[in-house]
Design brief:
The complex is a heterodimer. By secondary structure, chain A is an all-alpha fold. Helices cover 75% and strands 0% of the residues of chain A. The longest helix of chain A has 24 residues, at 10-33. The termini of chain B are far apart. In chain B, α3 packs across α10 and α3 runs parallel beside α15 (329-340).
Chain lengths: 187, 500
C-alpha cells in the first residue's frame, strides 16, 4: 500500500506519469506500424483513456481512508473500473472491425491556427487589456476566414466591445482586464 | 387548491417590466438560435448563462427557459423554408414542411408549425405543473439509496443518447462522473486529483466546461470542415398566404394528442424532443385516413412534429424540477444555471423557493404566448438569420465563450478549462463520443456519489436492494438501459428478415 501511495504524489507521481506516457507512446506507435493503421485514432483514444485513468486509479488507491468502508476513493475507483472495461470493449470492437475506419481530418491547420491565435489573444488581454485585444482578435479572425467587408468587420468588432462593456463591465460588474501595459502607461 | 393559489402567485411575479423583457428577449434569442443551423438549444442556453450571473434568479431562469422553449420552434422555420432543420428535433418537421413550401404553401406550413408549437408548449407546461408538484412532494421523503437509484436512472439516458455507439456514450458519461470527483471530497474533505492546484479544490467550474463542450467544440468542428456556405432560400415566403383560424381548428385533435405524447416522452430522461417527434409523427401517420400523403406535404405531419417537439420541453422540465435529474443536454445546462444562482434543482426547491418554481411555470405559459405573437409578426424576418455569414458568426461565438467563461470566477483558468473542454469535445465528437453524456455525468456525479456513500454508511451495501422504491428504480433503470438495445436488436432482425 505504501508503494502505491508513493506513486500517488510527489516524485513518485512524476515517475508514474512518465511510465504511463511512454507506455502510451509505445502502444500508439505499435498501432501506427500495424495493419490496423486506418483505425489509429479509434484505437488510440481508448488506450489514452486507459492510461489516464490508470494514473487516477493509483492516486485514488493512495487516498486516506479513515476506517470507513466508503472512503473518498471508492466512487472514483468505480467509475475508473467502468472506463477501463468499456475502453477494452471499444478496442476489441474496433479490432474486430465493428467500428468504422477513422474519418479523414479536414483543415486541422485552421483549427490549430485559431487555437494558437486564441491563446495569443488571452495573453494580449493580460498585457494590453480586453478591449483592444478583442478588437484585434475579432477583426483578424473574421478577416482570416475570408470575410472581406471591412465596414461590417469594424462595426461588429466595435459593437461587440460596446456590448461587452455595457453588459459585462457595467451591468454584471465583471472586472474585464485593462492590461498591465496600458495600466503602466496610462496609470 | 394550493397549487392554483401558488400558480396565481407565480403569475403575480411576472408583473413588471423585467420578467416581460426577459421572456421577450429569451423568445427572440431562442427563435434565432433554433433557426440558425449549427446552433443547438443547449449551445444557445450555455452561451447565454454568463449574461445572467447578476440577474435575480427568477429573471435568469425565465430568460433561459424562454430560450429553450422558443429554440424548439425556431428550428422548424429553416426546416420548412430551406429543408435544413435548425435543431435535430425539427428533422421531422421538414418531412412535410418542405414539400408544402415546394408546393407554394410555405405560409401554411409556417403557420401550422407556429400554432402547433404554441399549443404543444402550453399543454406540455400544464402537464409539467400537475405532474411535478406531486412528484416533488414524494421525492422529499426519499432515502439516499433511492436518490442514488434516481441518479442512476438519470444516467441511463446515456443508452439512448449513444445509439449504436453506446459504449462510447457510456465512457463519456463515466468521464463526466470521474471529472466530477476532482476537488475536495464532498463527505470527508480529502483532496482528490487536484495535483496541488488550489484552483481545482472546487473541481472544474461547470459553465466553462459546458460552453467548451457545446459551443467551442462545434466551432472547431465547423472550422475543420471549413464550409461556410450560406443556405439558399428558394421559396418566396413574402407571397404566401397564411391560414385562417378555422384551418388550425381542424387539426385540434392531432395537436392535442401529439402534445400529450410529446410531454410524456419528454419526461423520460434521454428520450428528448427528437424521439418524441418521430413517435408522434408515426402515431399520426398510422391513425390518418391518408397515410400515403405523409412525407409529401401533409399539414398534419407538420402539426404532429411541432406539437410533440414543443410539448417535450414541459416534459423534460418535470424530472429536472421535481427530482433534480436532467434528462437532456439543455436541461443539464439549466442545472448549471440553477447552481450558479445557489439553487439546487430537486424537491426542496418547491418548499424552499416556491416563488422560483411557480414563476417559472407561469413564465412557460406566457412565453408560449409571446412566441405566438412574435412568430406571427416575424416569420419573414426570422428566416433572415440564415443570411448571417458563418465566417462572422464563429469568431463571435469564440469571443462570447471566452468572456462568458472568464465571468464565472474572473479567472483565466476557467477560460483555459473552456478551451480545453472545447478541444476535447471536438476530437471526441469526431470519433463518435457524444458530448452530452459528459455533461450529464458532471451534473449527476455529485448526486450519485454523496447519496451512494450516505446510503452505504446508513445501511451497508445491501441497502439498495432492500428498499422497495430503490429496487423499483434500479429495475426501471435496467429496463430503460436495455430498451434501446432491444430496439436495435429488433431493427436488425427486421432488416435481416427484409433482406431474405
Amino acid at each position: 500500500m505504501d508503494t502505491i501511495k508513493y506513486f500517488g504524489k510527489g516524485p513518485g507521481l512524476y515517475i508514474m506519469a512518465s511510465v504511463l506516457f511512454f507506455l502510451f507512446a509505445a502502444i500508439i506507435f505499435a498501432i501506427y506500424k500495424s495493419s490496423k493503421k486506418e483505425y489509429f485514432w479509434r484505437l488510440s483514444i481508448p488506450v489514452f483513456f486507459i492510461m489516464t485513468v490508470l494514473g487516477f486509479m493509483v492516486i485514488a488507491m493512495g487516498l486516506p481512508v479513515k476506517g470507513d468502508e466508503v472512503g473518498p476513493a471508492i466512487v472514483p475507483e468505480l467509475w475508473i473500473t467502468g472506463i477501463i472495461l468499456l475502453s477494452v470493449l471499444i478496442i476489441i470492437r474496433t479490432l474486430f472491425g465493428l467500428d468504422e475506419k477513422d474519418p479523414g481530418w479536414g483543415r486541422v491547420g485552421v483549427v490549430g491556427a485559431f487555437l494558437a491565435f486564441t491563446i495569443l489573444y488571452l495573453y494580449m488581454i493580460i498585457y494590453i487589456g480586453y478591449y483592444i485585444s478583442t478588437l484585434i482578435y475579432l477583426s483578424v479572425s473574421i478577416y482570416s476566414l475570408s470575410y472581406r467587408d471591412i465596414k461590417v468587420i469594424a462595426g461588429l468588432s466595435l459593437g461587440w466591445i460596446l456590448v461587452s462593456y455595457v453588459a459585462f463591465y457595467r451591468i454584471l460588474y465583471v472586472p474585464l482586464p485593462k492590461g498591465i501595459l496600458i495600466e503602466r502607461i496610462f496609470g | 387548491m394550493d397549487l392554483l393559489i401558488n400558480l396565481f402567485q407565480g403569475f403575480g411575479y411576472l408583473v413588471g417590466w423585467e420578467p416581460v423583457v426577459a421572456m421577450t428577449v429569451g423568445v427572440i434569442l431562442g427563435i434565432l438560435v433554433g433557426a440558425m443551423p449549427g446552433l443547438s438549444p443547449s449551445m444557445g442556453v450555455a452561451l447565454l448563462v454568463p449574461f445572467t450571473y447578476k440577474m435575480p434568479p427568477q429573471i435568469a431562469l425565465i430568460l433561459l427557459v424562454s430560450i429553450y422553449i422558443a429554440s424548439n420552434y425556431g428550428g422548424s422555420i429553416t426546416a420548412v423554408t430551406i429543408n435544413t432543420p435548425g435543431t435535430p428535433s425539427a428533422v421531422v418537421t421538414a418531412f412535410d414542411g418542405y414539400p408544402l413550401t415546394q408546393q407554394g404553401r410555405a405560409g401554411e406550413a409556417l403557420g401550422i408549425s407556429l400554432v402547433a408549437s404554441t399549443v404543444g408548449g402550453i399543454i406540455g407546461t400544464i402537464i409539467l405543473i400537475f405532474f411535478s408538484v406531486p412528484l416533488a412532494s414524494l421525492a422529499v421523503r426519499l432515502h439516499p439509496a433511492e436518490y442514488f437509484a434516481l441518479a442512476i436512472f438519470g444516467l441511463t439516458t446515456v443508452a439512448s443518447l449513444g445509439g449504436k455507439n453506446w459504449p462510447k456514450a457510456f465512457i463519456a458519461a463515466l468521464l463526466g462522473l470521474l471529472i466530477n470527483t476532482i476537488g475536495l471530497d464532498p463527505i470527508s474533505g480529502v483532496k482528490r486529483f487536484t495535483f496541488g492546484t488550489y484552483r481545482l479544490f472546487d473541481g472544474f467550474a461547470l459553465i466553462p466546461a459546458l460552453i467548451g463542450l457545446f459551443a467551442l467544440s462545434e466551432v472547431f468542428s465547423r472550422l475543420e470542415e471549413f464550409k461556410f456556405d450560406k443556405e439558399k432560400i428558394e421559396a418566396d415566403i413574402n407571397k404566401t398566404v397564411w391560414p385562417s383560424f378555422i384551418y388550425y381548428w381542424k387539426m385540434k385533435f392531432t395537436i392535442i394528442k401529439t402534445s400529450i405524447i410529446g410531454t410524456l416522452i419528454g419526461i423520460f430522461p434521454g428520450a428528448g424532443a427528437t424521439i418524441a417527434t418521430f413517435i408522434a409523427y408515426d402515431f399520426t401517420k398510422r391513425g390518418s385516413k391518408d397515410p400515403d400523403s405523409f412525407g409529401k406535404g401533409n399539414p398534419e405531419g407538420v402539426a404532429a412534429a411541432e406539437a410533440s417537439n414543443s410539448s417535450s420541453v414541459g416534459g423534460a422540465l418535470v424530472p429536472l424540477l421535481a427530482l433534480g435529474i436532467p434528462g437532456s443536454a439543455t436541461t443539464a445546462v439549466l442545472v448549471g444555471a440553477l447552481m450558479i444562482h445557489d439553487l439546487n434543482p430537486g424537491p426542496l426547491l418547491f418548499t424552499e423557493r416556491p416563488d422560483i418554481v411557480y414563476s417559472l411555470f407561469a413564465s412557460c405559459l406566457v412565453a408560449n404566448g409571446i412566441m405566438l405573437a412574435l412568430g406571427l409578426m416575424g416569420s419573414r424576418l426570422w428566416i433572415k438569420v440564415t443570411d448571417i455569414p458563418k465566417t462572422v458568426l464563429f469568431p463571435c461565438i469564440l469571443a462570447i465563450s471566452i468572456i462568458g467563461s472568464f465571468a464565472v470566477n474572473y479567472s483565466f483558468f476557467d477560460v483555459a478549462v473552456c478551451i480545453g473542454f472545447g478541444v476535447a469535445g471536438w476530437i471526441l465528437k469526431k470519433f463518435d463520443y457524444p458530448a452530452a453524456p459528459i455533461v450529464l455525468g458532471m451534473v449527476l456525479g455529485n448526486l450519485a456519489e454523496t447519496n451512494f456513500r450516505r446510503a452505504v454508511i446508513m445501511g451497508g451495501y445491501p441497502v439498495f436492494f432492500v428498499r422497495p422504491f430503490s429496487v423499483l428504480l434500479l429495475l426501471v433503470s435496467a429496463l430503460s438501459l436495455a430498451y434501446p438495445f432491444y430496439q436495435s436488436y429488433r431493427k436488425k432482425k427486421k432488416s435481416a428478415a427484409a433482406g431474405k
